[in-house]
Structures are given as structure tokens and as C-alpha cells.
Amino acid sequence: MRFVFKTSYDADIRWFKHGAQMFWYAILLAIMLAVPLYFMATGDPYLLGEFTSVLIFAIAGMGLMLLTGQTGLVSLGHATFMAMGCYANVLLLNAGVPWLISFPLVGLLAGVFGTIIAFPVLRLHGVYLALATLAMSILTGDFIILGEAWTGGVSGIAVPDISIFGYGVNKYANPYAYYYVVLAVVLIVLAFYRNLLRSPTGRSFAAVRDSEISAQAMGINLTRTKATSFFFSCAAAGLAGALFGHNATYVTHETFDVVMSITLLLMIVIGGLGFIHGAFLGAIVVGLIPVLIANGRSFLATTFDVNINIPGLESAMFASILIGFILFEPMGLYGRWLKIRTYFELFPFYRKDMFRRQKSYLKTERVK
Amino acid sequence: MSLLQIRNVTQRFGGVVAVNDVSMHVDEGEVFALVGPNGAGKSTIFNLLSRFYTPAGGSITFDGHDLMKLSPDQVPSLGVARTFQNIELFEQATVLQNLLVGRHRHRKTSVLAEAFFTRKVWEEERHHRHAAEQVIDFLNLQAYRDKLIAGLPYGVRKVVELGRALATEPKLLLLDEPASGLSVEETQDMAFWIEDIQKQMGITVLMVEHDMGLVSAVSDRVLALADGKELATGKPSEVQSHPAVIEAYLGTSGIAKGGTAPVRSTAEDAAQKTGDVA
Ligand SMILES: Nc1ncnc2c1ncn2[C@@H]1O[C@H](COP(=O)(O)OP(=O)(O)OP(=O)(O)O)[C@@H](O)[C@H]1O
Ligand SMILES: [Mg+2]
Q1: In angstroms, what is the span from residue B38 Cα to ligand 1's centroid?
Q2: Angle, alpha carbons B277-B209-B49 (nearest 5°)
Q3: CATH topology match: B1-79+171-278 vs B88-169
Q4: Do the beta carbons of residue B225 and residue B242 sit within 8 Å?
Q5: How far is Cα of residue B151 from the mean position of the Cα atoms in its chain?
Q6: Interaxial angle between packed helices A200-210 and B95-102, expressed in degrees from 0 to 180 and rounded to the nearest 10
Q7: Rounded Cα distance, A290 and A204, in Å
Q8: Is the C-beta atom of B41 inside 6 A of ligand 1?
Q9: How would residue A272 be classed by pLDDT, with cut points 50, 70 and 90?
Q10: Of A199, A206, A215, which has the smallest distance from its Cβ to B121's Cβ?
Q11: pLDDT tens digits for B52-83?
């Protein structure tokens, strides 16, 4: 009898709200699938490599978004879980484990590792949790040096190629196949992400984020929910780390440093906290701005013969863009898009303070 | 046997004795109201029932279970749902999502099954949505269904919070000042809903309320509390005219109103307000 309402409930549960939405995402997917063809035609896969890096960061971004955007737990140490994934992957591959087994295993290991790390820090809130994870991130390099026998320490370690049923995939030798491998991982992580969000687990994440006290009053176990969020978040970070390793082909104790942890957090803030699109938009901004700056510089040099050689200029520009975002668009890029879309949908009835939080008035809790 | 039994419960905060040796019981099917001046310890009793605090002494049993043995997140599984005096909704989620969180105690699927979104998860989701949709119909929340809480007016939030508690399908509903901050019309609606919750859904209600009009309109029994101590228990009219209760109100805010017993006066104009309910 509950199936009487089947169609309308299913519309709410499905990944896409309606046909039009599905259509646009299908187009997007088609473009993503076709991108390498363009580069094959031009014969210069350099930009495709940048594209692939963006996707790898988007995977890590989805992981951190689940933890920070959905569950409200701020981590300034996600590069550590990427490092964990990367080194575990290298060790497994070097031990002769096929990539198709080692790669999922790495996700599992990073997830378990993250959950174990999570338990002692779960009692911490807000900025204290951020500081604890930051400390972890600072120590990561030292631990990698300490584990020199496995990690190669300061001198680093080479990352073996991906091999799928004997078919080797290397970023340089075969950038197109490498791109498709990364894209496949993106889609798988995305599917898990969306599934979790539309089920009780995802709602319990949001509940813990917005009000721990009433989450408990609804029967949600705080520790278990946070640990679950850490598990999936770190698993995604671990997978991203493994792919990052393949991308870098060589990693040292400095690869996964604090700056990477901070960049990951900035990335999802810029993209828009709490929106899955935010992970992607943030990755695009963080991944492509340095490319744009470098291109702009060489453009000036070749076209106008203007050579700008200020040390640290790129970092400074990058940082100012990030700061600008955080100051002027706290809802992130995706929030900006939502505003623009609403503007056009409601034209000409859009009000300037439509997205401002409404104040809820409480006459008084005291008797008059 | 009573559904809820509180025996000699005491709760201290440093030097403050917020609840002082209070005993009470709520019977199945009744609407029971806790009244008393500010700081009487009413909300503290709710928080004790939610197990946010552990009392210095005494016992609380619900439906044959010793609540003292449970953690806060285990209490709802027995069928106790609540609202908060200061509204604790999930701000960045929609009304529907808030109600669905209320369904959490009925969750039957594992995290792993949810990650793969198996058929079973899908069917459960339909079932939860059906239940949430019934609450939306009951409380007339259709217009707000997919709106974020963060943009909703105060009155609607109060209703959503009631809805979220109802979505848990509780045996006992704890309402902390359901009418505070509501307009006269909204308070009327609240009175009707509480009656329906009791009579049609068969849910027992324990509420804290300052609006004596609402209290006398809907409650079967009232307990008056002041400074953590029980003053009187009985029918609404009996409690309002109890000398100790009048005294307690006169001793605080009553004097400002020129010496008439404020409990009476609030009750009288409120009785006109919700007269047709009573
Ligand atoms: N967490 C706490 N820590 C310290 N003191 C507290 C705490 N909670 C309540 N109190 C104190 O306990 C007393 C009872 O508070 P409580 O909130 O139960 O009152 P109330 O009857 O709900 O009042 P109101 O009508 O204002 O809501 C007050 O003196 C209050 O200051
Ligand atoms: Mg109170």
C-alpha cells in the first residue's frame, strides 16, 4: 500500500530530480568522456594532464567535503590520509599485488586508518579538531622519514605504473588511458557519495553538523556517526593519494605537506561547503589558477616582451584570490551559481537579501 | 502502571539545585503539563529525561525500562521524542530532511547497504518518506517541504520541530514550551494539534508551557514547580487556585501586575482566547 505513492517518492530518492537535470549531467559526462579525443587530435596532452590533476584533487575534495561540508568536522590534515594511501599503494604494488586489488584495498586501509586516528580526536570540536589534525599533518613528513625502510624517506620512492590485466597505464606513456582511469574513480567515489547522502547515514551527518544535541535526541550516536564520516572521507583521500602518486611518479617526505592539507580545505571552502559541486569547482580553481598565472606570464613575455620576475608572485596571487573568495563569497562558487540561477528564475523579482539568513524572532522565553 | 515514573530526582548545577527531590508520574494517554516560574527546573527535567544530565539521586523509569542505564541516543529508541525550548533544528537541511532524521530510530539498513543503495535501502527510503509525508499533511507543512530551515520564520520552525518529533512515532512526546513566541492563531493551531496527537494518535504528551490558556485547554493534569520543588499537582483549575502556586507567582513576576494573582489573570484572558478549545 505504500507503493501507491511509489512514483512521487522515487522522484525524491533518485540521483536526479528530473529529466532535464539528468540530461545536463549526461551531456557533462559525454564531454568528460570526449575530452581526450580533442587532445589526441591536437597531439599535445599537456593540458589533459592538468585536467587529470584537477580530477584527482576533486576526489580528495569529495572526501574532505563529506567530513567538513556534510558532517561539520574540520580537518587540516587530509594530506596525511593521501600520503597514507599513496605509500600503501606503492608498498602493495611493489609486493606484487595487482593494481586492481591494491587500489580498492588502499581505500579500505586509509578509511580504517582514518577511523582509528579519529577516535582520540572525536571529542574535540571546531578549531580544536582543526588544530589536532593540523599537528598530525605537520608530523606526517617526519613519520615518512622515520619509516625510511618502507617509504624511502628523504630520498623518496618511485611509484610503479598502474597495470590493469597486464595493460600498463603511465601518465607520460599513455595520458589518455590514465585520464580514463582517474575519471572512473571519480565516478565511483561520486556514486558512493550520493548514495550515502540520500540515505539515513547522510542525514545523520547533517544532523551532527547542525545540532549535536538534537541529533542525539533523534537517536543518533555521535561517535559512530563521526567515525563513519571519517572512514569514508579518509578512504576517498587515500584513493586520491594513490592516484596522486601515480601522477607524480615519484614521492618524497615533502610531497604531502601541510600546504597540501590547507589547500584541500581552502578548495572546498572556495567551491562551496556542503555542496558536492563545491568539491569540483574548488578543484578547478585550485588546479587551474596556477596554470593561468603561468600562462599569463609567458604570454606577457612572448607577446609584449614584458618579463615579470617577482619571486613568489604566483603564490601571492593565488593566496589573494583565495582570501577574496572567503571574504566576499562565503557560500563559495556553487553558492554564487545558486544565486545567479535564482536571479534568472525569479527575474525580475529577485531581492538582494534573498540568501541572507532570516532572523528568527523569539518574543521571549521569559513570562511577560 | 504509569508510562513514565520519576522518583525523588535531584539535579544540581554547582550550588544551584535545579530539581529538588521531585517525584511525578505520567499515565499512558494523558496530556501532562509542567508549569512554574522561570528557572523552576522544568527544562532541566526534560534534559534529565533525555539523559543529557545524570541526576544526583533518584530514578526514572519509562515503559518498564530504567532510563538511567541508557545514553542520550538510546532514549529515542524506547519511543521518547522531544522538542527544545530554543528550537534545535538542522538549519542547513530542508524541512523534509529534518523530518526524515526523525525517522532515524526506525532505520533498518547498514551503512554498507546504504553506500551501495541496495533495493532494501530503496524500499526503506520510500517507507520513511511516506511516514514523513503524513506528518507534513497533518501539520500543513506542504508549502515548506523543500525549504531550508535557515530561511524559515520562527512560527514555522516550531511546527517543524513538532513534526520531527512526531516522525519518530513516539509513545511519549516531550514539548518544551510549544507555544512560546507564537501568535494567538498559531497557539490555537498548536492546541488543536496537541489534542489530535493525544486523541487520534494515542501519544502521551508531557509539556512545559507558560501559556495557562493552552495548559488548561489541553492538559489533563498539571504539576506546578518552583525553585526545583513540587508545589502542587492536579487538574489545571485546582493547580491554578492552589495557594502555594499563587504565592510562587506573586513572589516573582506577579507584583508588577498590581497584586492580582497573575496565574489567574493569564488564565482568564487566555481562556477567552482558546475558549472554544476548552
Ligand atoms: N546546564 C546548566 N548549568 C548550570 N545551571 C543550569 C543549567 N541548566 C539549568 N540551570 C539552572 O537551573 C535552574 C533551572 O533551569 P531550567 O532551565 O530548568 O528552568 P525552566 O523552568 O525551564 O525555566 P524557563 O521557564 O526559563 O525555561 C536555573 O536556575 C538555571 O539557571
Ligand atoms: Mg525552560
Answers
A1: 8
A2: 125
A3: yes
A4: no
A5: 24
A6: 110
A7: 37
A8: yes
A9: confident
A10: A199
A11: 999 999 999 999 999 999 999 999 999 999 99
Evaluate: CB of B52 within 6 angstroms of ligand 1: no
Domain B1-79+171-278: CATH architecture, name and number where available? 3-Layer(aba) Sandwich (3.40)
Q: Do A247 and A171 contact (CB within 8 A), yes or no?
A: yes
Answer yes or no: is the C-beta of B39 below 6 A from any ligand 1 atom.
yes
Is residue A72's pLDDT more than 50? yes
Closest approach of chain B CAs to the CA of A258, in angstroms?
Answer: 30
- What is the domain partition of chain B in residue ranges? 1-79+171-278, 88-169
Q: Which of A21-25, A276-280, B261-265 has the highest mean pLDDT?
A: A276-280
Q: Report whether residue B16 contacts ligand 1, using a CB cutoff of 6 Å.
A: yes
Residue closest by Cα to atom 4 of ligand 1 = B13
Between the alpha carbon of residue A287 and those of residues A48, A115, A232, A282, the distances in Å are: 12, 28, 23, 8
Contacting residues of A for B93, CB less than 8 Å apart? 203, 206-207, 210
Cβ-based contacts of B95 with chain A (< 8 Å) = none
CA-B46 nearest atom, ligand 1: 18
Q: Which CATH homologous superfamily contains domain B88-169?
A: P-loop containing nucleotide triphosphate hydrolases (3.40.50.300)
The answer to whether A230 and A114 have CB atoms below 8 angstroms apart is: yes
Q: What is the ipTM of this complex?
A: 0.87
Q: What residue spans define the domains of chain A?
A: 20-258
Q: Does ligand 1 have an atom closer than 6 angstroms to the CB of B180?
A: no
Distance A365 CA to ligand 2 centre (A): 8
- Cβ atoms within 10 Å, residue A68: 25
Taking the CA of residue A70 and the nearest CA in chain B, the distance in Å comes to: 10
What's the whole-number mean pLDDT along residues B196-215? 94
C-alpha torsion angle, residues B11, B88, B90, B190 (rounded to 10) = 130
AA letter at B67:
L
pLDDT over 70 percentage in chain A: 90
Spell out which residues of chain A touch residue B37, defining contact as CB-CB under 8 Å.
367
Distance CA B103, CA B125 (A): 10
Residue A61 confidence (pLDDT) above 80: yes
Q: Which residue in chain A is spatially nearest to B93 when comparing CA positions? A: A206
Q: Give the HSE-up count for residue B64: Cα atoms under 13 Å, Cβ half-sphere.
A: 1
Contact A262, A74 (CB under 8 A): no
